[in-house]
Amino acid sequence: MTTMTPTPAPTDHDPRTRLVVLDMAGTTVADGGLVEQAFTRAAERLGVAPDLAYVRATMGESKISVFRALFGDEELARRANTEFELAYAELVDGGLVTALPGAAGAIAALRDQGRKVALTTGFSRTTQDAILDALGWREIADLTLCPADAGRGRPYPDLVLTALLRTGTDDVRQVAVAGDTSYDMLTGVRAGAAVVAGVLTGAHDRERLTGAGATHVLGSVAELPALLTAREEEV
């Protein structure tokens, strides 16, 4: 009888961060209350009362999921989502979208360090592209993803895992995720990212970020390149 010797699993692990997945609104892009303004406009057009408390609590989640939870009716949720996207596009066209200080420089620094960068959002592709165009950011990252590209939005891990697959990253432990909401943190944790960094430039505070699993909390995304470099030097 021949005994088969199992092939040992590889034990070597490259600790270097190869892929950085960044949120947009509140993390790299200044929100300035635009989500709440767009939601209020959409609610007015539908003749419903805007629940801004719920909108604030679910910042970072896929917008269609927010409307489904609010209205419990698929048709109304889709109508609300369409109106929201139209209202947000109006605000973008009005020149009200700006990059957060240091964001573009941070993205450039991350790529100069040899890392792939993916920009993700809870908005639709149409709205995401409008923001990228308004900022002149079409070529700033290696990849841009919205929920429709991945299957599900936050807090599911799909956006991060889709970025990993599309960039050819070998290991979830080579991924860093950064965002300003608890949903960003949950997405990173569920995807198995080694670094899940919360930033204090957006919707949620330090307590909510750490409560959702943040491994680090930064003042802004501008601090991320130095954090990743320092972390690798410690290994």
From TrEMBL:
Pfam family, one: Hydrolase
A GO CC term assigned to this protein in UniProt: cytosol
Record's keyword annotation contains Hydrolase: yes
InterPro entries assigned: HAD-like_hydrolase_sf, HAD-like_sf, HAD_sf, PhnX-like
Top-level taxon in the UniProt lineage: Bacteria
GO molecular function: phosphoglycolate phosphatase activity
Listed SUPFAM superfamilies: HAD-like
GO biological process: DNA repair
Keywords: Hydrolase
PANTHER family: PHOSPHOGLYCOLATE PHOSPHATASE, PHOSPHONOACETALDEHYDE HYDROLASE
Protein name: Haloacid dehalogenase domain protein hydrolase
Organism: Streptantibioticus cattleyicolor (strain ATCC 35852 / DSM 46488 / JCM 4925 / NBRC 14057 / NRRL 8057) (Streptomyces cattleya)
